[in-house]
Specification:
The chain folds into two domains: about 1-100, no CATH class; about 120-315, Growth Hormone, Chain: A, CATH 1.20.1250.20. The protein has helices at about 1-10, 15-45, 50-80, 80-95, 100, 120-130, 130-160, 165-190, 195-215, 220-250, 255-285, 285-315. The radius of gyration is 20 Å and the shape is globular. It is mostly helical. The two termini are about 40 Å apart.
Length: about 325
């Protein structure tokens, strides 16, 4: 957090483009470290049976930040310029480092066995050896791989084909964030049984996987707004119950490495998909690619979720 905050502070200065890109790389690298660390902190603050609800509450705050952050940033840039905006961002990024001290929590480092090395590879190894995590991670990888194509191409569908202006395009994105926020707030306020969490997760994943197909056949952007709102609710089930499920079955001493590995897998799927999305859309058409991507995402769900369900039921019965 301290290094990332300093990198953001530095971007407020007039620097060559290559230095700005270097600072962005440093800031995002630090963020990739902070994310798994906070994921590891969550189970130290919540009881195991409350993990799903805790993740829902956390996701609610993330969604609020996602809704208000761009608007606040736009206001600050318009009124104060880039310097003050980056200084505020850098300050709050650095402030994250103080939060564990303020809430008086910490994680004591685990001593390594002779010859043992701490690495993300240990997280990959644990995920692949656990039947539940293996199926869940492969399922999420497949869905992200397919849905990232939709995230890249929706701007072309909305603006070039449907004639949406920047305001309408912003509303569509807000619909997804609002759906995530509302359902995250619901999961944070309701305690349900592990089996009910699993069923809700299944419905959410099915809805999210089909959203790409729905966007591909939508007649206008009003339909897309509704689809993305519903998809946002499906996304909230993964962030709340899916991640909570991972926390419950992962021993505390390897949670940081597991979440780092999970983040790496999702990033590879997202970046790989986005890197070919433009070519595919140019070659086959945006609607056609959306329909195919949504169909493949649902196939991944239909093939892999039964294993996730079966393995999680075993965990519930233990």
């Amino acid at each position: 957090s301290v290094i990332g905050g300093a990198a953001i502070f530095a971007q407020a200065q007039e620097l060559p483009n290559y230095l700005i890109l270097t600072l962005l790389f440093i800031a995002n690298t630090c963020a990739s470290v902070v994310g798994p660390t906070w994921g590891k902190l969550t189970p130290t603050l919540a009881k195991k049976e409350d993990i799903g609800r805790a993740m829902g509450t956390i996701q609610s705050y993330f969604s609020i930040a996602g809704l208000l952050g761009p608007a606040l940033a736009g206001f600050l840039v318009a009124k104060t310029g880039f310097v003050v905006t980056f200084m505020i961002d850098g300050f709050f990024t650095t402030f994250i480092a103080l939060v564990p001290f303020m809430i008086n929590v910490n994680h004591k480092p685990q001593p390594l066995e002779p010859g043992e090395k701490t690495s993300v590879a240990a997280g990959f190894k644990f995920m692949m050896e656990n039947p539940l995590l293996r199926s869940l991670v492969i399922l999420v990888f497949g869905m992200v791989l397919c849905m990232s194509v939709v995230n890249v191409g929706d701007v072309f569908l909305l603006t070039d084909i449907m004639g949406a202006d920047s305001f309408i395009y912003g509303l569509v994105g807000t619909g997804f964030a609002l759906g995530t926020l509302l359902f995250s707030a619901f999961t944070g306020s309701r305690k349900v049984s592990p089996k009910t969490e699993l069923v809700i997760l299944g419905f959410g994943m099915a809805i999210l996987s089909l959203s790409g197909f729905g966007v591909g056949v939508a007649p206008n952007y009003w339909f897309i707004m509704v689809i993305w709102f519903i998809a946002g609710m499906g996304n909230a089930t993964i962030n709340s119950y899916g991640v909570g499920m991972m926390i419950k079955v992962t021993p505390h001493e390897v949670q940081g490495r597991v979440f780092a590995a999970f983040g790496a897998i999702v990033s590879v799927a997202s970046i790989g998909s986005m890197s070919v999305a433009g070519y595919l859309i140019g070659a086959f058409g945006v609607r056609e690619v959306f329909v195919i991507a949504g169909s493949l995402a649902f196939v991944a769900f239909a093939v892999l979720f039964p294993t996730v369900y079966r393995e999680q039921i075993k965990q519930i019965k233990l």
